[in-house]
Design a protein that fits this description.
1 helix, about 70% helix, mainly alpha, rod-shaped
């Protein structure tokens, strides 16, 4: 996702990019916290 920052081959605003990454990380983290919680609950119920 951050492969073009070092080369500067793409024209973008760095601050916007950082905001974008932060938003995605939050969504990503919430999504996985959700999945892990469901998985653990399932595991406890099955054992």
């Amino acid at each position: 996702m951050i492969k073009n920052i070092s080369t500067g081959s793409e024209d973008f605003n760095l601050l916007t990019m950082i905001d974008y990454i932060d938003d995605n990380t939050l969504i990503f983290r919430e999504y996985f916290a959700h999945k892990i919680t469901l998985f653990l609950l399932l595991k406890v119920n099955l054992s």
